[in-house]
From TrEMBL:
Localization: Secreted
Keywords per UniProt: Aspartyl esterase, Cell wall biogenesis/degradation, Hydrolase, Lyase, Secreted, Signal
Residue ranges constituting the Pectinesterase catalytic domain according to the UniProt record: 48-331
Family recorded in the similarity comment: Belongs to the pectinesterase family.
Main location: secreted
Protein name listed in UniProt: Pectinesterase
Organism: Mycena maculata
């Protein structure tokens, strides 16, 4: 169905209000099955003038100015790389009957590229966020390249923007799924799948809450590339780490919470429910002969589940006290989060 205005579709208005800086604290929930007024519409095989059948073409059609723009995407599989680079805020929302549940997503964006055929890792990205104030809702973003022994880097989402929110999205790849590199980012109630270094980047402040993180095979969940004592940090609170439904057998005993790509790597996992069968050392060095552990802060608080049952952590990792853990919150990581984060996707504080 195609309604000119959303019916009982309050969620669709949230991004408009957020970019105006309104304080939104109540929960709207529900469906998102029609475009908000003024949205650019993307629909498979559309023949309606002004609509797009290609998501990249729709994004490229947005005015290059500071206005806020919304792209509404009807169910379908869309192929090709998409770059977001205009200066004004952009919201992309996928059709869904339950905006809080990634399992009900109906929109997929698919691309297949790896470092073997691209000039840089970033350029392999299926969706590349190159500007600020971007919000993504209910989108499945895949890089279907798969596995390779060398040059297997294949990014689903490359995030180089400030104030970027990822809400109930699913990101799929094997190596380097999520490049969370520059800016302040939140990833909320989403699904992130991969095997090798699949949440990585250099400088960003990234907050993850209520996500399911799925390991497909041997490798590290995070690879923080922090190279000096800058503000960069990855804070995880109340996420689940599982073995992906179609994980390779080598997922057992060969998954680690992270390894330091940079020797100031900084990653905090709080209140994580871990069923993926982690290697008992939990954290890994970068490489034999190049451990990169000198200045790292690789920390946990209240990890639970069978995945950490026989843990024997290395001396370069940290287990936080409750008082120390309390210092790593969304507010401490991103003090202005109330100005731009969609609070509907935050878990109630406990
Ligand atoms: C557009 O598609 C609809 C249904 O898919 C069809 O009824 C209509 O005739 C088409 N219009 C044009 C201009 O092709
Ligand atoms: C995205 O940006 C890259 C690098 O500038 C370019 O090669 C590619 O064609 C762009 N893709 C689209 C769909 O515009
Ligand atoms: C966009 O992001 C920039 C950088 O974070 C910020 O200063 C600006 O206020 C934002 N603009 C809007 C309209 O949200
Ligand atoms: C992706 O592209 C590679 C070549 O670069 C090809 O070998 C592979 O089969 C493709 N995978 C899919 C799922 O299309
Ligand atoms: C894990 O298993 C997959 C599938 O057999 C294989 O492609 C990959 O190279 C393995 N990873 C490691 C680190 O051995
Ligand atoms: C890193 O920078 C912070 C903030 O500027 C400072 O408080 C801290 O002491 C520095 N850490 C090291 C090890 O230099
Ligand atoms: C844990 O990882 C280390 C380092 O990769 C490896 O040598 C060891 O065999 C793994 N543990 C198990 C039980 O497989
Ligand atoms: C530990 O984490 C779990 C979620 O994995 C949470 O339900 C529980 O309240 C946390 N306990 C403490 C003491 O924070
Ligand atoms: C940490 O452990 C490694 C390997 O087990 C050991 O070589 C090193 O001396 C230890 N470092 C400290 C500071 O205890």
């Amino acid at each position: 169905m195609s309604l000119p205005f959303p019916s009982l579709n309050m969620r669709a208005f949230v991004p408009f209000l957020l970019v105006l800086g309104s304080a939104i604290s109540s929960s709207f929930g529900g469906t998102c099955t029609g475009p908000p007024a003024g949205a650019v519409i993307v629909k498979p095989n559309t023949n309606v003038t002004g609509e797009f059948s290609d998501l990249g073409a729709a994004v490229n059609s947005l005015p290059v100015d500071d206005t806020s723009q919304v792209v509404f995407v009807y169910p379908g599989v869309y192929t090709g790389q998409v770059n977001i680079s205009r200066s004004g805020p952009v919201t992309i929302m996928g059709y869904t009957r339950d905006s809080l549940d990634f399992a009900q997503n109906t929109v997929s964006l698919v691309h297949n590229a790896s470092l073997a055929t691209s000039a840089s890792d970033d350029l392999t990205g299926t969706l590349r966020v190159l500007s600020n104030n971007v919000s993504l809702y209910n989108l499945d973003i895949r890089n279907d390249f798969g596995v390779a022994l060398t040059n297997g880097q294949a990014i689903a989402l490359s995030n180089q923007g400030d104030q970027v929110g990822v809400y109930a999205c699913r990101l799929f790849s094997y190596q380097d799924t999520l490049y969370t590199n520059v800016g302040n980012h939140v990833y909320l109630k989403s699904y992130i799948e991969g095997a090798v270094d699949f949440i990585f980047g250099r400088h960003s402040i990234a907050y993850f809450e209520g996500n399911t993180i799925a390991s497909k095979g041997a490798g590290c969940v995070t690879a923080s590339g922090r190279e000096l004592n800058d503000t960069g940090i990855y804070v995880f609170n109340e996420n689940k780490i599982i073995a992906a439904p179609d994980a390779f057998p080598n997922v057992t005993n060969n998954v680690f919470l992270g390894r330091p790509w940079g020797d100031w790597a900084r990653v905090v996992f709080k209140n994580t429910d871990i069923t993926a069968p982690l290697n008992k050392t939990i954290w890994s060095i970068w490489n034999v002969g190049d451990p990169n552990t000198e200045f790292v802060f690789l920390a946990e608080y209240n990890s639970s589940g069978p995945g950490v049952e026989h843990a024997h952590r290395p001396n370069f990792s940290t287990v936080l006290t409750p008082e120390e853990a309390a210092q790593y919150t969304l507010l401490s990581a991103i003090p202005n989060y109330r100005d731009w984060v969609d609070a509907e996707y935050l878990l109630p504080e406990f």
